[in-house]
Design brief:
Helix content is about 30%, strand content about 25%. It has about 150 residues and is an alpha+beta fold. The chain has a four-stranded mixed beta sheet. Helix 2 links the parallel strand 7 and strand 8.
Length: about 150
């Protein structure tokens, strides 16, 4: 099974955007897409259709953040959702020796924090909510976590 690929939207009327150009970039994303399609509380959903400019603290340059998922619920609430492993939402612990792996983890963490701060502001201006879904969130929503080979 591929970790990424084209996602065939089963109900194009429920998809908010071009339903022929939906890609999942992880198995978790694919499962969230299925959840959105099957969940009657989700009126509309999209993936990577919301683009937020942000200034990254790693290079002080403006970049574009393509938010993983946007959902509009039957309650009227709108959520922008980032799907990430829990370990990427926590600052990496400094090892005794500074390794290349540690530097990469710190840079990724800082970049993610820059994106998420911009997303929080973007949502606040629109009356939406920004959330990061980890494996714990997915499990609590009844979304089956797939791994390679399943």
């Amino acid at each position: 099974m591929a970790y990424s690929g084209r996602y065939p939207v089963s109900d194009p009327k429920k998809y908010d955007g071009d339903s022929t150009k939906v890609y999942y970039r992880s198995l978790w994303e694919r499962q969230v897409f299925k959840w959105c399609e099957r969940n009657p509380q989700v009126l509309r959903w999209s993936s990577e259709e919301t683009i937020i400019p942000y200034k990254c603290k790693t290079d002080n340059r403006i970049h574009r953040y393509f938010v993983d998922v946007k959902i509009k619920l039957d309650t009227g609430e709108t959520y922008l959702i980032e799907i990430k492993p829990k370990k990427e939402t926590i600052a990496p612990k400094k090892p005794a020796r500074q390794t290349k792996k540690y530097v990469t983890e710190v840079m990724t963490y800082v970049k993610n924090q820059s994106k998420w701060e911009a997303a929080e502001e973007y949502c606040m201006q629109r009356g939406w909510k920004f959330v990061v879904w980890t494996e714990d969130t997915l499990k609590s929503l009844g979304i089956k976590l797939l791994t390679a080979g399943k």
